[in-house]
Amino acid sequence: MATLTTFEAGYCTHTACVALPGAGFRTCAFPARAWMIAAGGRRWLWDTGYASHFHDCTRSGLLAIYRKVTPVYFDPSESVARQLGQHGVRPVDLDALIVSHFHGDHIAGLRDFPSIPVICSGAGWASVRALRGLSALRRAFVPGLIPEDFDSRVRPVERFEQVTLAPELAPFTTAWALPGSNDDVLLVPLPGHAAGHLGAFIRTDGGWVMLAADAAWSPRSYRELRGPSALAYAILEDRRAYLETLRKLHLLDRGGHVRILLTHEGAL
Questions:
Q1: Does this model's pTM top 0.70?
Q2: Which in 27, 74, 101, 223 has the greatest CB count within 10 A?
Q3: 138-149 pLDDT, tens digit each
Q4: Are 21 and 226 in contact (CB under 8 A)?
């Protein structure tokens, strides 16, 4: 069985009703969470949350708009690399990083983990790797967060073994098995929010857990089948695919066999 350790590495703020229509005009904090997954004697880090590199790369130019639209609050003591150290885990102790998608709040700490393999959607990486300027801003991609040797470290999930999922994980039917995890970590596409957006089913002693990344920003979204505001749709990769993913999470939640964890779940 796998275990999960949760970290919060900074947060951003936004008007609540942008993430969930009807939630009001109050300012809401959205934590940037990351998880250490341990299984089969190995460790992986799921996303990195914010890091000082995000502020460094968005101080000026077009990308400064990113941090103005979603103000970021982060202290260097909150970096996932430092928090891992408090658990006695060094970056070199990780077998790989797993990147759910390439928005800045999920990859800001990549440079804190040099030389470590990076598991991600190969198609997702291909869709953003050349983006610069306005094109990068529109897709919340910050090129400076990507280490120079990143291409050589990428391990595309599309090359992993595909497996059939257990009935209790319906309506999801297939996944990529994370190598070395004894099938306790199964990676699945959750399209719509961003190119190559991934989730993961984690088998723990307490049952199945799904890391659903940014497939929703509040449990109310998938429980009530309520998408975000029209303004939020403007930055989504594919509105139709997003709503289909939301529908699948709704059915998964109704099945009652899986606990769903969202990266930015705020007080909505």
A1: yes
A2: 101
A3: 999 999 999 999
A4: yes
